[in-house]
Task: structure prediction
Amino acid sequence: MRISPWMMPIIFCAASPIIAAEGKDCPKKDGLILTLKVEGVRSSMGQIRAELLGKQPGDAKAKTVTYGVKDAQSGSVVIEFPGLTPGDYAVQLYHDENANGKVDMNMVGIPLEGFGFSNTPLVAGGIPEFDKMKVSLSADATTTAVLAYAP
Amino acid sequence: MSGPHNTEPSRRGFLAGTAGGLAAVAATRSLPAFAQDPYHPIDEIAPTFAKARASDPRLAGFANAPGEFDLTHIRIEGKVPKGLSGAFYRNGPALFERDGVRYRHWFDGDGLVQRWSIGPSGIGYRGRFVATHKRSLEEKAGKFVVATSGGGIAIKAPLTGSDSTNPSNTSILPVDGAMWALWEGGSAVELDAETLATKGYIDLGEGSKGAPFSAHPRVGEDGRVWNVGSLGSRVILYRLSNNGKLEQARIQTLGQPGYYHDFLLTSRSLVVIQCSTQSDATRSIENGSFGSMRAVPGKPMKVHVFDRESCDLIRQAELPEGFVFHFGNGWEEEDGTIRFDMAHDGNADLMLEFFKPMRGLFPDWNARAYRVTLPVKGAPLVEPLQKQVEFPKVNPHFETRRNRFVYMSTMATAGRADWFDAVVKIDLENGKDQIFRYGPEWMIEEHLFVPRPGGVKEDDGWLVGTALNWKKQRSALTVFDAAHPERGFLARGWLDTAMPLGLHGQFVVASS
Result:
């Protein structure tokens, strides 16, 4: 099965300490908080797995900052990313409905599980450019992602 | 006939893909002056068509279907021949406008499956739209909200993959008692063979859900089914059991971009032939892909021969520059020489022609029939036959085997270039033809060969096809003696309305 590059960190995340604490909020840290509202969650099965990307002035491309995982709840789920410094951030996420720790895709690399992006009410194809899904953080902020599922 | 294909999981191309090429392929050449032709403002399409239709009754062939009908007995001219019993299915785009917005491209319309039951008790008719995901969203919204291959629609619905946009409008395949409505960019959709009720998307397994699955699967002599899925510069080669279970799905590279819609199956080989096309830089989710599918002058069509069991590449060859939608049949000699027929158009910008009907114009049909010999070594032999043809079909009992006859739609009225008005039987061995002229008031669709039960001779059976009589504003199904179509029709069943022109079909013989 082909894996989209953007999903790789999330797959690696399955073995990370964050997964070990899945379903719980991350411990409070000093710094700013980015709150991600995940809407359009179609079932309470599995988890919502999110990757926080950050881009500092001078960075050629965004880098993974951390991951967040929450048990899915039909309707909406909130994931917080605390302890952040001011800067530009974006989140890409998917609904791991079968809780296998990876995004299931078809043979040509199209997700078969719901996925979404920060600051993106309508998934329209591929992964948006970072600037389209970014949140410029200078104080605590909230962004929304709406999950989209294959028919 | 075509639609969005998912191609690469790249940032930009992830879902932008459509029939015929890598999403990431962006031509560096400057765009020709006519490049914007496909991209007419969407708000102008519907009024332009309405104005044209007011004075041109032929355009009923590209208008919204007047409805979904159930007719138990329709009026028949002539007599249904004894022994012809079953159902003729046809799929085709049949809804092009909602809320004053009209699609840019003919192949974007929602698929309508029509079922003509034929037997001793007469002819019945049923039509149902395929209840796709996109159709249900748009029925609810009362307007178009989903991206299309022709582009221009204000996208209001999520696009997660090909099946988000799948109109299921191109063809149909009988599988294990059910019917699969086919597109080419995404999954097949299962229908009830009698009621035409939609049951859902087919998931063949092995990660194939939502992957391109062409509208022209071919059935081997043992009943197994082969198909291709277009990934532009790659191809998915499918092999299914005779009851529709996936046996193999393998991706092979083709080494270059280039559209392909149909393929050939012989007793040993699967042959993919890419047109002389490449997507240009205008391709996007908003624009779709059809408008970007452009001729590459000087680029020959590329032939790829695969072993149909292992899916390994056996050899490659080149054919004259152009565009081919359809092949009638391919077969293979002992020494590996492959012979086939094709409807080849020297205009590789052919996909652009089918923007025209949405604006009330007619495509420029110039495909010509050719007989092709593909030797194991050396250059292919390409011999011209009839001009202005499309929709080649053969006796299904002769598919993958040596065949002598192919049946096609053609134009037989002098000076006509708008649409097919005759059906021709071509003898591939001597080039002779037998033509039945429907007449200038007709626009005919694909005709299928139905073998006579117990028949042995290749042309022993019936030719069955649908057509639109634009003068009468009625559609009809016509039955011919396939040995002698030129002698006139045996039976014709009439609807009271004009239905939009369809694409491909299948005849399913009634179980005895």
Observations:
- Chain B touches chain A through 38 residues (CB under 8 Å).
- The first strand of chain B starts at residue 70 and ends at 71.
- The CA atoms of residues 316 and 370 of chain B lie 19 Å apart.
- Helices of chain B lie at 42-53, 133-141, 162-165, 350-353.
